[in-house]
């Protein structure tokens, strides 16, 4: 949460939880500039008015303050009568337009990244198959909190997003393999949704290097 939103949240919580009229009035005076901007700065006569005061401010902050942007967004949705269809069938596009917090699973992440493999029977393919088992075990450890890294951090490192967007991912994520001479730590191309994992001799080394590489990546982090 950015500092400005954190300050607003803290202030509205203090007003909402004010135990007496005097404390409520003091809080209103302390935050007069904020409340005046929203047009809801006034003297209150009872604690019952605090809820309405907070509701008025939040309505201004969320809706009225952004009215121009909202109207432009609605105008854009009117193209090809999309807004009309959306009003008539509001639940159809809910998954695409409204964010839903869905916790990632190890199976989901494993299936998301399609491996790019060497020809069957080659020495490289044998190493890649072993690395795939390490990769699957690593994702399970992330899911079960047996790793310093979360599944969301794995996806952020590889694709620059902490969750799968409603419209899916394009290009489709791919899993590449690297020999130790190239790198012992994971690498990623977030523009192409490519994750490169090292070919190592043991799962212990693989897990330690994956944790270190993802946690110390300077490019992306979960926010």
TrEMBL record:
**Which UniProt keywords are given for this protein, alphabetically ordered?**
Transferase, Ubl conjugation pathway
Asked if Cytoplasm is a keyword of the record, the answer is no
Query: What start-end ranges are recorded for coiled-coil regions in this protein?
Result: none
Q: What Pfam families does this protein's entry cite? A: HECT
Tell me the ranges covered by the HECT domain, including all copies. 154-223
Question: From the Swiss-Prot or TrEMBL record, what is one GO molecular function term?
Answer: ubiquitin-protein transferase activity
Active site: which residues?
A: 191 (glycyl thioester intermediate)
What InterPro entries does the annotation carry?
Answer: HECT_dom, Hect_E3_ubiquitin_ligase
Indicate what this protein is called per its UniProt record.
HECT domain-containing protein
